[in-house]
TrEMBL record:
One of its GO terms (cellular component) is mitochondrial matrix. Keywords: Chaperone, Mitochondrion. Belongs to the complex I LYR family. SDHAF1 subfamily. It comes from Aspergillus chevalieri. Coiled coil: none annotated. Residues 9-68 form the Complex 1 LYR protein domain. This is Complex 1 LYR protein domain-containing protein. Its main location: mitochondrion.
Length: 78
């Protein structure tokens, strides 16, 4: 298996954090959160590996969204 670049590790780390945070949500809404997280990552799958500015922007955006959705007050997402 090839070594991952720093940005690739950051993207995978963000995805793992999302999955970990989903486990803290109510059982009945976990599928909605999982579907949303997967859709957000799939939406940006065509961003080129060399487009560093776009990837860094999407990472910052993803961290902000994760922080917002990690709030205990948010119990479901559609």
């Amino acid at each position: 298996m090839a070594r991952l670049s720093g940005l690739q590790r950051d993207v995978l780390s963000l995805y793992r954090k999302c999955l970990r945070e989903i486990r803290r949500k109510p059982v009945e809404s976990r599928d909605n959160f999982r579907t949303y997280a997967r859709a957000e990552f799939q939406k940006n799958i065509l961003v080129g590996k060399k487009d560093f500015t776009a990837i860094e922007y999407l990472l910052r955006k993803g961290h902000r969204q994760l922080e917002m959705y990690s709030s205990p007050g948010i119990r479901n997402i559609r």
